[in-house]
Structures are given as structure tokens and as C-alpha cells.
Amino acid sequence: MTIHDHILTENDFVKQDTLKYPFEERGLQFGDGIYEVIRVYNGNYYLIDEHIDRLYRSAAAVKIDVPYKKEDMYERLDDLLQKNGIDGDAKVYLQITRGSAPRDHAFPDQTQANLYAYVKDLPRPDTFLRDGVSAITHEDVRWDWCYIKSLNLLPNVLAKQTAKEHGCYEAILHKNGEVTECSSSNVYFVRQGKVYTHPAKKNILHGCVRMRVEAFCKRENIDFIEEAFQVEDLAYADELFLSSSTSEIMPILRVDGQTIGDGRPGALTRKLQKCYEADAHINEEDSIFTSQTAAE
Ligand code: PDD
To answer: Residue 120, exposed/middle/buried by CB under 10 A (0-12, 13-18, 19+)?
Structure first.
């Protein structure tokens, strides 16, 4: 999938091949920056308010001045889709760093933040959404402030790579046996019709889709319990699923080679996937609930 040509920067739009940063750039050298990944369906942003709010919260937490006021950010992000003629399913990656400056750990005295945002086509992961995925468990060695969507992703990258080497989609992270989230998604445990997930404390990312999962559960009278579960509890899960802007709500059917529940996507996960499709205004022809799923 190619990146569409018009890139939003801290000043204005530029063509992709003119985007240049010096080596002494705080994001490159220190991971000194923050980012967002925003889903687009049929040319429209999904959960844009949640993403923009979190972007400004992350920026404030690491003392980076966002180059645009919030109202302007909405406008610029809309322009990004317009300029690139996006009318299908895509994702926007937006990153803001503290800027370019001679390398020194302390903040530079005078630097303007560097911002870029690009858009890339992204079909829905239909097969995984229908058939479910496998995961491994992995120690969570990240810092304590994972609620900040920071560029420092090395522990996440290493965990995801280990999952990949085991033929798995995700790594379920745990601190001393307590499940926090996955390497790039939130994770949920279902038992006796109740959904359990780690509380939205500082040590997990407060996922935008997670907020919707909570809202769907409330609406459907499903108990949504913000209580951390243990790795050893996984053996007793009726269902397990993960959520993120790119993975949506995805069933997990095996963990460390052990089958979860009856080894098929569960009814509660399916219900939440339906809620998601309705909420994101997915067209009927793009729904995962086609004949293939109905035949299950
Ligand atoms: N990841 N937890 C982590 C560690 C994440 O990186 C993500 C998102 C989530 C889910 O957040 P949301 O529902 O707002 O997408 C949870 C994005 C997709 C990424 O880094 O590519």
C-alpha cells in the first residue's frame, strides 16, 4: 500500500519526496515525540474526537507544544483526506516530535515541534476478524507511563516480533503475571457473560476503541469490569478479544498454543463486532457478517 502524496507538516502540506529532516531530530535520536493512528472508513474519520483529545493529552504529558490549535488540527486532518482524494478505507499516521536540535538530552531552548501526518490505504482485516487470531504471553517491560502514546516503542516492537516468530498475531503483555494490554492493542477476558479488562490507569494506553467497547457493553447490558486478570486466568476464559484502531474488535482463539473456550469466536465478541460495524458506519457489503460467517 502506498502512502498518498500530500503530507501534512507543522507548517503546511508538502509533497512526500520533499519531506526532509536532519539527523539531529529529537524523534529520531530520543524517540522524543508522540503519535496517533486514526482509522478512516469510506473517506470519513472514525473516533476523531477521541484521537485528537488523546494527542493533546500525550503532548501535554511530555511538554510538547502542538503546532496547531485543536480546531485547526481538525481542519488540517480533514484537508489531508481531501487533498489525497481519500474515499475508501485508510489510516492516518500523525507524529509530533520536540523538533530538530543539536543532540542533548535536556530540551533545546528554542525549537519548534516537527509534525507530519500521512494517509495510507488500509482494508479491514476481514479474515482475522472472522476467523480469530493466536497470541503469545510476554513480559511487559515498558515504563510506567504507557497512557502516553509515545514514540518509544522498542519493548512493543520486540514483543510483537516474538509473537510473529511464534506464528502469532499479538503478544499479551503481563507484569508479574497481571495482564496489562497487548503490544499494539487492548485485551479483554470474557467469563460468564462479563467482560474484564485492565483499568485505564497510567500503565496502559487508553484505547479509543476500548472506550467504545465500554460504551457498547453498557448499551447491551454487558458487565464491563475494569479489573486486571492474570495470565493463569486465561485458561478459564470463555472468550478473549483485543481491540485497536487497525485491528478493530478481534477474537483471540489460542494463547501460547492453548485453545480459548471452544476454539471459535464467541457470541459476546461477535455482538461487540456488530456494534463496532454499526458505530463505524461500515457498509453492508463490507461487513464481516457475510455468508461466510453466517455459515459458522
Ligand atoms: N496502536 N495499546 C497499545 C499499546 C497500542 O499501541 C494501541 C494502538 C492500543 C489501541 O488504541 P486505539 O484503540 O486507540 O487504536 C492499545 C496503534 C493502532 C498503533 O500503534 O499502530
So the answer is: middle
List pocket residues of ligand 1, CB cut-off 6 Å.
37, 156, 181, 184-186, 205, 207-210, 243-246
pTM exceeding the 0.90 threshold for the entire prediction: yes
CA–CA separation, 149 and 36 (whole Å)? 7
| Cell 480469530 -> residue | 132
Read off the pLDDT of residues 260-289 as tens digits, 9 standing for 90 and up. Answer: 999 999 999 999 999 999 999 999 999 999
Identify which of 245, 248, 250, 279 to mutate to test ligand 1's pocket (most ligand atoms within 8 A of the CB).
245
**CATH number for the domain running over 126-294:** 3.20.10.10
Q: Beta partners for 139?
A: 174
Fold of 20-121: D-amino Acid Aminotransferase; Chain A, domain 1 (3.30.470)
**Domain definitions of the chain by residue range:** 20-121, 126-294
**Closest Cα to atom 20 of ligand 1:** 184
**Is the separation of the CB atoms in 79 and 92 below 8 Å?**
no
Give pLDDT tens digits for 151-163: 999 999 999 999 9
Which of these is catalytic: 69, 70, 149, 194?
149
**Which DSSP string do the residues of 94-137 spell out, in sequence order?**
EEEES-B-SS-SSPPSS-PPEEEEEEEE----HHHHHH-EEEEE
Length of the chain: 296
Distance CA 207, CA 203 (A): 12
